[in-house]
Write a structure and sequence with these properties.
Blueprint (H helix, E strand, L loop, with lengths): L3 E12 L2 E12 L3 E5 L6 H8 L7 E6 L2 E2 L5 H8 L2 E4 L11 H11 L5 H14 L15 H13 L5 E5 L7 H16 L3 E5 L3 H7 L2 E6 L2 E6 L1 H6 L4 H12 L1
Parallel strand pairs: 3-8, 3-9, 6-7, 7-8
Antiparallel strand pairs: 1-2, 1-4, 4-5, 9-10
Helix pairs in contact: 3-4, 3-5, 4-5, 5-6
Length: 247
């Protein structure tokens, strides 16, 4: 029986008079990989930020582990926030810290792990993403793909229940995209719950259990990858997929 990881109920987001999200309803199941696709400006990244409370919704509910995150107290949010990981398109690594220090910072400060334990666990995650040999390097000596793999290891080190990715390959050179997608595919195989905003259609098709197609601040269509890409029901979805395939 499937269990709900996150549920969205009538989520809206306004910036002044501009409504970016227009009453979003949806469910992410535990162990599921959900990809969110759609044209630029459709609200994909805004939805992601509303889901993990980086920029909470204007109205509506985001239910995680039985609690509405939009109404959670600071202490509850701190506790629940540890269980939600985020990987940004721009890596957000600390340039003055080594790779190992970047990965251990959260576990030491938030989870109060000893330096020894944090280092030991961090090395395991760095191995997992193929970056153990760069533990003592600084971010400015790494390629974009390497930085993003370190960012993934850093998110994993907090042992999240759900991991969000906001366009994880959009800042990368084409030759670095594959190495990052391979790491995400591996995590999908391990059934980590993930929500991925992406413009990599072939990857979305391969890695996802479910896809939400967004346009104009709404989920226009949701389905499994094969159905959505090969037999879309909505005109907007058809038009988008035709355009993407032509590109």
């Amino acid at each position: 029986m499937t269990k709900t990881a996150i549920e969205l109920k009538n989520v809206t987001k306004k910036f002044k008079d501009h409504e970016v999200l227009k009453g979003i309803n949806g469910v992410v199941e535990e162990g599921q990989v959900l990809s969110i696709i759609g044209p630029s400006g459709s609200g994909k990244s805004t939805l992601l930020r509303a889901m993990n409370q980086l920029s909470g919704p204007t109205s509506g509910e985001v239910i995680f582990e039985g609690q509405d995150l939009t109404k959670a107290s600071k202490s509850d949010m701190a506790h629940l926030g540890e269980k939600i990981g985020m990987v940004f398109q721009s890596f957000n690594l600390f340039p003055n810290h080594t790779v190992l220090e970047n990965v251990t910072l959260g576990p030491r400060r938030v989870k109060k792990l000893s330096t020894e334990q944090a280092n030991q666990e961090a090395m395991e995650y760095l191995k997992q993403v193929g970056m153990a040999d760069k533990a003592n390097a600084y971010p400015n000596s790494l390629s974009g793909g390497q930085k993003q793999r370190v960012a993934i290891a850093r998110a994993l080190a907090m042992k999240p229940k759900v991991l969000f990715f906001d366009e994880p390959t959009s800042a990368l050179d084409p030759e670095n995209v594959g190495e990052v997608l391979k790491v995400i595919q591996k995590l999908a195989d391990e059934q980590l719950t993930m929500v991925i905003v992406t413009h990599e259609m072939n990857f979305a098709k391969k890695v996802s259990d479910k896809i939400w197609f967004m346009a104009d601040g709404q989920i226009v269509e949701e389905n499994d990858p094969e159905s959505l890409f090969n037999a879309p029901k909505e005109e907007k979805t058809k038009h988008f997929i035709e355009q993407v395939l032509m590109d």
